[in-house]
Amino acid sequence: MILRLQILCTAVLALLASSDARAAFPFDWGLTGEISAEVRSFPREELFPEQESATASPSIHIELELLAEWNDGLDRVTFVPYARWDAHDDHRSHLDVRELHWIHQEESWSFLAGVGKVFWGVTESRHLVDIINQVDQVEDIDEEDKLGQPMLNVTLLGDWGAIDLFLLPYFRERTFPDEDARLRGLFKVSGDADYSSDLEEWHPDWALRWSQTLGEFDLGLSFFRGTSREPVFLPRFGSSPNDITLRPRYEVIDQIGFDGQWTHEAWLWKFEGIVRHGHADTFGAFVAGFEYTLFQIGGTDGDLGLLVEYLYDGRPRDPIEAPITRAEHDVFAGFRWAANNVSDTQLLGGAIVDTRSGETFAILEAAHRLGDSWLFQVEVRWLFEVERDSIAASVRRDSFVSARLTWHF
């Protein structure tokens, strides 16, 4: 399958690169993308009888990026479609527009309209202030993958830093695994979401962010008012005691966020914190820690970064009052190794440990380039010491190892 897609994309690129094709468009443009084949292996037996019993779950994904520029590069259109097919999770088989926007840039300002992706944050283990885009949770349980967000964005630049103003006219609901798939929750999640606003997904959200670099300090201060990207879950009971469905409910919230990083010699000191109002109680949360880099370790070209962070979250523990989280009083310790070779070999590993229960979520990510166009990756997501009353209890047997081969073009 991936070989056929590779041949098709090569033919399309050759056609688009022809002189006749370029002459037909009055702007500069380019097309890049990637196709990957992935296999997830689940060594442990499934927890629920309706789940797929296969220990290996294959999938294929393709992501393209089409860029078009004119007006000496001051105007640009970006289109990033995304598609995945998964053999065992119908919800993970999905299409999405990650980006589709026009941006106009001037020396002191820029304007963007369309579907975009925005990242805020500096810490490794959790991104508290990163609230613009919704999580694409069917992709991975680390919540790093995001859905495209419709937006209008004005950026103002000056000696005082950068100010970003966002109008977000449409809300996107979080994705969840299918009920017969691995990594599902204890109960089925309804596709019929509830909202605290009568406007539902059309509630106009908005956000404001100031960012600035002052010497060794990178600072960001943000405010968001709109529909929470994290839902609470309301139980709905059927005809039998075991017939329970969870209905996501999205509240309108206010959130103030601050992120800062101090870079001093081999040290990176990092902090992210928020105060959120709109659930049952106003609460605060933060992540604080450091990364220390050992350069050319062992006389090699490789660099080793050591990471330590503390995670605190003060939200109510009742899942009906506030979105659930496993990061209440946790410690993250990990490492980042870069070989700095022609194959760009990298290794990232670490674990988040609950200081009260001992529950541990461990990760390992390895990447190695094979020539100019191919990338081989291995990822591990493993759970230890999960108690039966933990929010991770439903996935305690769903630790997995994945291998991915990606062709970039």
Could you list some keywords that capture this structure?
5% helix; Porin; 22 strands; mainly beta; 409 residues; globular; 18-stranded antiparallel barrel; 4-stranded mixed sheet
Can you describe what's shown?
The longest helix is centred in the first third of the chain and has 15 residues, at 2-16. This protein starts with a helix and ends with a strand. The chain has one domain: Porin (Beta Barrel). Strand 2 (56-70) and strand 3 form a beta hairpin. The protein has helices at 2-16, 19-23; strands spanning 28-41, 56-70, 75-86, 94-105, 109-116, 149-158, 161-168, 188-189, 194-195, 205-214, 217-227, 232-237, 244-250, 252-264, 267-277, 283-294, 303-313, 329-338, 346-354, 360-370, 374-384, 400-408. The strands form two sheets. The chain has an 18-stranded antiparallel β-barrel. Strands 8, 9, 12 and 13 form a four-stranded mixed sheet that branches. It is globular. By secondary structure, it is mainly beta. It is built from two helices and 22 strands.
